[in-house]
Task: inverse folding
């Protein structure tokens, strides 16, 4: 058995600040908001979703164009390799 089961004062303060502090912030600000943040409203959300949709389209277009460039580079490499092989075989 433990004769002296008293907790150190610093541990009690850490527990107090660790649990009571966030509970007080939740009570004063509400569950859904954090300090300094604004709740998004309908028009803002719609504008952001439209901007994301436009960016998604741009990214898809860039991916398609990059794929085409990769195919062209592969073709050019094959052509150069075949020409190099022909010149080596002639010599």
Result:
């Amino acid at each position: 058995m433990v004769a002296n089961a008293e907790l150190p004062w610093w541990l009690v303060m850490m527990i107090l600040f660790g649990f009571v502090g966030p509970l007080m912030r939740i009570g004063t600000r509400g569950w859904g908001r954090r300090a300094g943040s604004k709740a998004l409203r309908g028009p803002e959300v719609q504008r952001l979703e439209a901007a994301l949709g436009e960016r998604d389209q741009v990214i898809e277009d860039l991916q398609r164009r990059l794929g085409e460039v990769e195919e062209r580079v592969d073709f050019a490499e094959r052509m150069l390799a075949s020409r190099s092989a022909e010149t080596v075989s002639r010599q």
About this structure: The CA atoms of residues 29 and 35 lie 8 Å apart. Residues 43-91 form one domain. The helical segments are 9-29, 42-90.
